[in-house]
Design a protein that fits this description.
Elements (H helix, E strand, L loop, with lengths): L4 E2 L4 E4 L3 H10 L3 E4 L3 E3 L4 H6 L8 E3 H4 L4 E11 L4 E6 L2 E6 L2 E4 L3 E3 L7 H4 E3 L3 H20 L3 H7 L1 E5 L3 H17 L12 E6 L10 H13 L2 E5 L3 E4 L3 E4 L4 E3 L2 E4 L3 E3 L2 H4 L10 E2 L12 E3 L4 E2 L13 H14 L13 E5 L5 E5 L2 E4 H15 L3 H16 L18
Parallel strand pairs: 1-8, 2-3, 2-9, 3-6, 9-21, 11-18, 12-13, 12-18, 13-14, 20-22
Antiparallel strand pairs: 4-5, 6-7, 7-8, 10-19, 15-16, 16-17, 23-24, 24-25
Helix pairs in contact: 1-10, 5-6
Bound molecules: flavin-adenine dinucleotide (FAD).
Flavin-adenine dinucleotide binds next to α1, β3, β6, α7 and α10.
């Protein structure tokens, strides 16, 4: 193993996602460990999947975002608290990085459940590769349906099942349904072919992250667009031809998107840090891991008590942002308790439709869509990225969506 090295300024940030990158950008002198050289802004992932946004515009290069920080592109694998060393696996091999202060911002991962066929036939929707693969797959399904002569088999190509009705599943389904609707203009033979869109949720309502009335409005809107919403229902099994639900329904489909089972990153527990029943790092009001002097945690991988709220923070980007700002201050000054009063929340549901609540005012439809987009734009770092996203949105107002299926990108033919 190569020699250990000391993190820049003694501060090591593990995970350069939304929370970690804000801490690193604010503090400057630090080392970031992240598997990619960019930060992915997940709230815009559904729009990248539907083709409203260019995939490159929903990511921000960490070297540009945090110019004074050192970036190690690699994955943390082990933590040795006795020597204050984090072991990272990189293309140059595995080595240790020593720290005086360690910030854990590993986010959440999608975990499958032991549902028969899920790991073989389910698709994730958590990162950029998932989103782009899903878009290409949906467009391939349209091509396959267009070429199909047998109506029953054609129907199978036009069946889409999303399991998990949080932000990811609900926004993902709404945006992809819009993509298919727009694309079908160019498939005259499929115009009257029946499609099936199903949103499956084990809890008794969709969008648990937002107020109940906004979730009810979303359910109503999706149902009007022909989406079948199955709450209180679980996925029982899936194979290459169909998905079966706990209510006994079998849906012919080749597309099962799994967004349920989101869990804090498993490394938090593997590092031996104190965790709650869900596996989130337990931190005090200063965002310091309980019982530790030099380890801090925030974002989706932590259970963060909020002095201005009744319970711990939900896993959203706006909370991650506020936690990161507080932690950046606590690392250089006398720590103060984290408190954040939520100003609003929202979601986009395809073109010109959305929900938002800001300072207690509820917006639905076009206003909800506009408010949510504006808020996402505010949260997106760097003026250049904001400008590119606004340019994409503007183009999308006047021109139709691109429906090229680019699944072969990244897999060039070998030289013969
Ligand atoms: C599809 C989707 C849509 C969403 N939509 C919304 C929305 O509309 N509004 C909203 O408020 N929130 C939304 N969220 C939630 C929001 O994205 C998260 O709350 C936010 O990203 C949390 O920030 P984080 O830094 O904790 O985690 P992340 O941003 O996920 O960052 C974690 C980082 O850790 C890195 N990492 C992973 N493993 C390792 C390792 N071994 N070593 C080093 N680094 C590692 C990852 O690559 C990543 O860069 C959405 C989430 C998803 C998945």
């Amino acid at each position: 193993m190569p020699d250990d090295r000391l993190a820049r300024g003694g501060l090591l940030v593990v995970g350069g996602g939304y929370a970690g990158s804000v801490v690193a950008r604010r503090l400057g002198e630090c080392t970031i460990v992240n598997p990619e050289n960019y930060m992915l802004f997940r709230p815009l992932l559904a729009e990248a999947a539907s083709g409203t946004l260019e995939p490159r515009h929903v990511v921000v290069p960490l070297r540009v975002l945090c110019p004074r920080a050192e970036l190690i592109v690699g994955s943390a694998t082990r933590l040795d608290e006795s020597t204050r060393t984090l072991v990272v696996a990189t293309d140059a091999g595995e080595y240790g990085v020593r720290y005086w202060n360690l910030v854990i911002a590993l986010g959440a991962t999608t975990r499958t459940l032991p549902v028969p066929g899920l790991s073989e036939h389910g698709r994730g929707f958590n990162d950029l590769a998932d989103a782009i693969e899903l878009r290409n797959h949906v467009l391939r399904e349209l091509e396959a349906a267009d070429a199909e002569l047998d109506p029953e088999r054609r129907h199978r190509h036009l069946g889409f099942v999303f399991v998990g009705a949080g932000y990811a599943g609900t926004e993902g389904l709404a945006e992809l349904q819009d993509l298919v609707r727009d694309a079908l203009r160019y498939y005259p033979r499929l115009r009257n072919a029946p499609q099936r869109w199903v949103l499956v949720e084990a809890q008794d309502r969709i969008l648990p992250e937002v107020q109940e009335s906004l979730a009810a409005y979303t359910a109503h809107l999706l149902e009007r667009r022909g989406v079948e919403i199955r709450t209180g229902t679980r996925l029982e099994s899936v194979d290459s031809e169909s998905a079966t639900l706990s209510d006994g329904t079998t849906i012919p489909t080749h597309t099962l998107v799994w967004t349920a089972g989101v869990a804090p990153h498993p490394l938090v527990e593997a590092f031996g840090l104190p965790v709650d029943e869900r596996g989130r790092a337990r931190v005090d009001q200063h965002l310091r891991v309980e019982g530790r002097r030099d380890v801090w945690a925030l974002g989706d991988c932590a259970r963060v008590p909020n002095a201005a709220a009744t319970g711990p923070d939900p896993p959203t980007s706006q909370h991650a942002l506020r936690q990161a700002r507080r932690l950046a201050r606590n690392l250089v000054r006398k720590p103060r308790p984290y408190r954040y009063r939520m100003i609003g929340q929202g979601a986009t549901l395809g073109r010109y439709k959305g929900i938002a609540e800001i300072f207690g005012l509820r917006f639905r439809g076009f206003l909800g869509w506009f408010a949510t987009r504006t808020y996402h734009l505010y949260q997106l770092p760097l003026l250049t990225r904001k400008a590119r996203v606004v340019a994409d949105w503007t183009v999308a107002l006047f021109f139709r969506r691109d429906i090229s299926e680019l699944g072969s990108l990244g897999h060039p033919r070998r030289l013969r």
